[in-house]
Design brief:
Layout: H1 8-13, H2 23-42, H3 44-56, H4 61-86, E1 89-92, E2 95-98, H5 109-136, H6 142-145
Antiparallel strand pairs: 1-2
């Protein structure tokens, strides 16, 4: 069962994502972002604790604050960033293609890249905020501070402060 830490309605109400975007497109993006962006920051043990509490309706005050103030901002902007592409390109029974609706002109390749980066910058900021909050308050989150041992346990990325799409090379001067 897929437990989402933000609903499609929340994403639409708190971003520029249009209200008429089908929830069926948003839910898989939320799930994907949780798996690829949130779990690496908070670790799988804390994530599993939070989703179990959400499912049971027993979310602690500490975890509720973590979700509302730190996780959801990452989710909403990452979903927007990813939707820039998935909203433009669709997979159908005849293959992949782009959609051009009535009175709507899709962005060009350069514009898509610029739009995606606007949302990516927001997501990066909130990812850093989430990471700093957890490091500052690690004693309140024992599963973050000391994750269990196991081959399937994802340990939190504690030192990754900035992610870049560019690889910088340095030249050694002789």
């Amino acid at each position: 069962k897929m437990i989402l830490l933000a609903s499609p309605a929340y994403i639409k109400e708190n971003t520029v994502l249009h209200y008429n975007v089908d929830d069926g497109y948003i839910k898989p993006l939320i799930s994907s972002v949780q798996n690829t962006k949130i779990i690496p920051i908070i670790g799988s043990a804390l994530f599993n604790e939070i989703t179990a509490q959400v499912e049971a309706g027993t979310v602690t005050t500490l975890n509720e604050n973590l979700i509302k103030e730190y996780i959801r901002p990452v989710l909403k902007w990452e979903v927007c960033s990813q939707y820039v592409r998935t909203g433009t390109y669709q997979l159908r029974n005849k293959g992949a293609g782009s959609k051009s609706g009535d009175g709507f002109t899709p962005l060009g390749e350069g514009e898509l890249f610029a739009a995606k980066n606007i949302f990516k910058d927001q997501a990066d900021y909130y990812r850093l905020t989430l990471s700093k909050y957890l490091r500052q308050n690690e004693n309140s989150f024992p599963l973050y501070k000391t994750p269990p041992v196991g081959i399937d346990v994802v340990h939190p990325e504690r030192e990754t402060l900035w992610r870049s799409q560019f690889i910088l090379e340095t030249k050694k001067h002789c």
